[in-house]
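call fold(seq) -> tokens
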Amino acid sequence: MKELQDKLEYCLNCRTKPCQNGCPLQNDIPTFIAYSKQGDYKEAYETLCQTTVMPFVCGRICPHTKQCQGACVRGIKENPVSIGEIESKIGDIAIQNKWYLPVKKPTKKNKKIAIIGAGPAGITASLELAKRGWEVTLYEKQEKIGGILRYGIPKFRLDKLYIDVLEEQLINYGVKIETKKQLGENLNLENLITKNDAVFLSIGANKSLRMGIPGEMQENVLGANELLEKEKHLNYKMKKVIVIGGGNVAMDVSRTIKKMGAEKVIVVYRRARAQMPAEPKEVEEAIKEGIEFLFQINVKEIKGNKVHCVKTMLIKKEGEDREFPVEIQNSDFELDADYIVMAIGSKLDKSGLDKISINEKGYIETNENYQTSLKSVYAAGDSIGCRATVAWACYSGREAAKCIDKFEK
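ret:
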């Protein structure tokens, strides 16, 4: 515990709480750290539970350097406070003591809701509405709940026991869970609208995007999201694999493939390393595990096992803060690869959403209250195109639940 105490004492407990402003969920970080310094871990945990239902998850997988730790005052001249590590340790203490969420018997409202999709947004909305007295049924297409937490983030980054804890929390609050239920197959949106006061869509966006280049539909070109979600991996032993992309999904899939015996894994990214959306610690872990990186390289075409690439330079456009990659003439070259994995983003699966308006970006269209084109149907998380982190998905699920609680059918 001395190591934890040293990390706690490093925090200045700023009155202005910049770290809280950097957190999508607005967790009261200085207060939970202050309680932790005093050894009152239960009060620290309950402070976190005022704004989040899964501190033991977010403490492990959030992009802290871009969120809370990125806003830490100590980080201006030194290293920031290890907020994520502290949060995860307090979460572990809570699990060991079976504190979980502080359960208070809610006053029943005689209102029913169907929540479709048991990922971060769906789990958060389920608990928030159950706490407000709603009768909640949570539907999940997979065999177990968790969404991206269980079927996207590899076990080496997030032990699945934490999703089991979330399931126990849901059950404690009286949430009914039905698995192997998929919208457009054995789950009908119109029927759910009829039987419930509201419906909440948190179905994610797990279909891998393609680049629109020649050869990308070959059999040896795979989608990162599908590989991670379905775990239907190929035999990578002694194979060369190129992963195209620079986010955490690219890191997760490249590290997974390397651990499965690939001879060489190369991550190809069209911008500079500093512009990668992946969490820096995940990039460092990938490098330690022997994964190679090629920066400022754009893939133009795939022919069999040949990947046609071109180098890029970064330029600033007028009125723009960030730099954009521009291809360098006569800088073409080829890479050999047995498999190519697309990890450049994802899109919504529109199955079963025939009567829901989809916006020009391909996501479910919602108003400022997370309400879709159907009055009693709400949506949040990746399915509406919110910023693709677990914390932002939880935030949108929490805020949508507040709006749903005010809704009258």
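The chain has three domains: 2-96, 112-205+348-405, 208-346.
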